[in-house]
Amino acid sequence: MDFGFWIAANCSKRFKTDSNTPLSQGMSALITHFGGNRFYERDQNNKIVDTKASTKVMRYFYTTEKGWIDMHHFFRVANWARQFGETLAQGGGSFGEAWQRVTGNASANSYEDAASNQAGIEFWSKYGEQIASGEISAYDAVENFLKDLGATDPEKAPNYSMIPHMIKETPSVTSDDANGLKGEDLRKKFEEWWNSLTEDEQKRIKEAHEQIENRR
């Protein structure tokens, strides 16, 4: 697993103990960096292309212990834990999902959200004081934490070939399990959803995957 992108996002900076400003700025930089995402659409020739809002950010990891992790959720809730404590951070994550449902956000309760929020809290609980004191760099802390979660290449996730290439009105699969939807449970959930699609819908997703892979 290549964690080199953390450097560009200031994750490798060692924060000092004499001021909260560097730590606050570093966490904000990471939240902003991972707020980017890769978005696709089809052009007039039915080819997969990036939308204008698309950014080439490696935002998602699959882990054997918590399933998929969304690093924007991860760092945002880790920062809340830093600022307000674990209980309020947990509440903030739950409120965020509820607000998305109320406002009709297409990603509300997506299957990786709750696990990503919980992972952020656990990360800060384990490494927060060490990062703040300069005992460990944020880069090393994140790398250690994700390795402990069993982070692996996204292609190794059991649902990888079934992931839709475009965001619909509702997520393909939802979950509020803070321990993560993973392994066989993840595969079965996605197979249920996949089997609910028409043959044409399945074909379009498969073709999109092939086009995206060829563009790497």
Short description:
The protein is mainly alpha-helical. It has helices at residues 5-8, 21-33, 71-84, 86-103, 113-133, 138-148, 183-195, 199-214, and strands spanning 40-42, 48-50, 60-63, 67-70, 151-152.
Describe this structure in words.
There is one protein chain. With 216 residues, the protein is mostly helical. It is 51% helix and 7% strand. The chain is built from 8 helices and 5 strands. The protein has helices at 5-8, 21-33, 71-84, 86-103, 113-133, 138-148, 183-195, 199-214; strands spanning 40-42, 48-50, 60-63, 67-70, 151-152. A 3-stranded antiparallel beta sheet has the order 4-3-5. A hairpin with a 3-residue loop joins strand 3 and strand 4 (67-70). It is globular. The model is unreliable at 1-21 (pLDDT under 50).
Give the arrangement of secondary structure elements:
Layout: H1 5-8, H2 21-33, E1 40-42, E2 48-50, E3 60-63, E4 67-70, H3 71-84, H4 86-103, H5 113-133, H6 138-148, E5 151-152, H7 183-195, H8 199-214
Antiparallel strand pairs: 1-2, 3-4, 3-5
- Average predicted confidence as pLDDT: 79
Broad structural category: mainly alpha
The general outline is globular
The largest sheet, given as strand count, sense and whether it forms a barrel, is:
3 strands, antiparallel
Order of helices and strands: HHEEEEHHHHEHH
Strand coverage percent: 5-15%
Strand runs, count: 5
The low-confidence runs, each spanning 5 or more residues with pLDDT under 50, are 1-21
Bin the helical content.
Answer: 40-55%
- Rg over alpha carbons: 18 Å
Distinct helical segment count: 8
Lateral arrangement of strands in the main beta sheet: 4-3-5
Distance between the termini: 17 Å
